[in-house]
Specification:
homodimer, about 160 residues, Arc Repressor Mutant, subunit A, three-stranded antiparallel β-sheet, DNA-binding
Chain lengths: ~160, ~160
DNA sequence: GTATGAAATTTTAAGGTTGAAATATAGCAC
DNA sequence: GTGCTATATTTCAACCTTAAAATTTCATAC
């Protein structure tokens, strides 16, 4: 191993290094998001938030409560209300009350929603694959592992 | 070197690996952004987009055109119009016309804006440092390098 | 069963965001 | 100088987003 630089004896990287990392992480996310948003609009006439909600619902055949959706997607409750409303209007999702608790809405994909999402998901996966094509396998793997560690460290803390 | 896995002879990681990487990148960004947004609101009564614009202006003592700001921050032109307007109303920034081209607005920080930003930037840097504290220095460095490569590969392509 | 408090969701106000249309200025061909 | 095209910005409609207040329903203590 290499000896620690004189400028820092505390744990981890010096401050500037972490700030730089955060800025690059943010810029990379925004670049990718911008491309995905544009293509979802152009080819499927939809938005990234709607895609995200469809994606969450697709993993839950029995449906999800509104609050499950918002916590899974890391967005606010009120936010989900509007997006789901538009998905329901578009015939992509359905809402129903859970037996025994009239507070809870259960949101599910409709057959049309499942079908539409399948097509989007296939394209989305291809686009991401293409956008990240420049990353060598080992770097991709290392990055993913680091980010996973990061996220589990922060579970529930934000 | 390790021999290539049978499932992929093409460059880089297999599809699923990249998709997973993207999802983790996005979730990490959102988690960090949520914390920063909340703290900026609580301690400085401001927002992340305003902080971003102040940050861009702070690097350009001679001021920036609206379009410079939007391309630097990777957001749309119309977006910047509104944010700058609020910053001007708050006394943080000033707008003037450039000699010889009445189309171009030059936006600068006011002394109050400079001062306010200095305090925010100091806190922001501390917060980021704290949020990323779990990352060992070598991983932070490697990650930053990977992301930098990624961004330069995509210059102007989005 | 009544009050009290907790839980799930919606509503509201303010702001952020985009893409496209509109406006205004500049520069150039002629 | 007139007209054409490009550039810089703003405006607009639609949507996304949050935090906080309001609403509805449930659960529990009494």
């Amino acid at each position: 191993m290499v000896s620690a630089p004189l400028t820092s004896v505390r744990s981890g990287a010096p401050t500037k290094e972490r700030l730089r990392l955060w800025i690059r992480l943010l810029r990379a996310s925004r670049l990718i998001e911008a491309v995905l948003r544009e293509r979802l609009k152009a080819r499927f006439d939809t938005t990234l938030p709607r895609f995200d909600v469809l994606s969450a619902l697709d993993r839950a055949p029995e449906g999800m409560a509104m609050s499950d959706i918002s916590s899974f997607l890391l967005v606010s409750n009120g936010n989900v209300t509007g997006i789901v409303e538009r998905l329901v209007n578009d015939g992509m999702a359905s809402r129903s009350k859970r037996d025994g608790d009239r507070r809870t809405s259960i949101v599910k994909l409709t057959p049309a929603g499942k079908e539409a999402f399948a097509a989007m998901a296939e394209a989305h996966e291809r686009w991401v694959d293409e956008l990240l094509a420049g990353l060598p396998e080992d770097e991709a793997r290392a990055l993913a592992a680091t980010l996973k560690t990061f996220e589990s460290n922060w579970e529930g803390e934000a």
